[in-house]
Amino acid sequence: MKILVFAASLKKDSLNKKLSAQAAEILKTQPNLTIDLANFQEFEMPMYDGDLEESSGIPSGAQELIRRIQASDAILISTPEYNGGIPGTLKNAIDWASRSRPTPFTGKHILLLGASPGGFGAVRGLAHTRIPLETLGAYVYPQMFGVPRAHEAFDESSKFKDPKQLDHLTKLIGAFVKFAQAR
User: Fold this and answer.
1) Which backbone phi and psi does 109 adopt, to 5 degrees?
2) Residue 70, SS3?
3) What whole-number distance in Å separates Cα of residue 37 and Cα of residue 130?
4) CATH class of 2-182
5) What is the pLDDT along the chain (183 residues), one digit of tens a residue?
6) Domain segments of the chain as ranges
C-alpha cells in the first residue's frame, strides 16, 4: 500500500511539517507500505478560477498533486488551522484537484492531523477539512489527531518531546493503516 503524506503548509519551519515528518517515520515502521513524503510547495498553483481553467487547463502544480493522489492508496494530511478553519491553500488545492475526472479523492482513505500553537491543536480546522474531502468521496478516518501548543511539542530534532504523544500517534496510525487496508 502506498501512502501520500504532506503538510498543508508553505512555511519553511512549519509545525505541521514536523508532524507530517514524525508521521512518515512511524509509517516507515509498518510492513508493506511505501511512503511518498511530499512538500506542499511542490503543488504550487494559483487560486481556483474557472476562466483560467477554461483557457489554460489545470495548472502544473495541481496536476502534480492529482498524479500523486492517484498513485496512492491512502493520504495523510497534516494541516494548520487558520482562524478556526481550513487553510485557504489547502482548500484551493482540493478545489483544483477536484476538477480532474475522475475526481482523485474518490475512494481514497485519508487521515487528518494538525498542529497549532493554540490550545485546541487545530481540531476545529480538521473538522472543516473533512467536509470537502468526504463530499468528493474520500473515506476520512473518524479519529483525528491534534497537537496543541505545538510550538512547545517538538525537540531540536523535530521529534515529540512527550512520549505519550508519540505513542498516541503511533497507535492512531496503526489503526488507520488497518482501516485503509481493509477497504
Assistant:
1) -95, 130
2) helix
3) 21
4) alpha beta
5) 999 999 999 999 999 999 999 999 999 999 999 999 999 999 999 999 999 999 999 999 999 999 999 999 999 999 999 988 999 999 999 999 999 999 999 999 999 999 998 888 788 999 999 999 999 999 999 999 999 999 999 999 999 999 999 999 999 999 999 999 997
6) 2-182
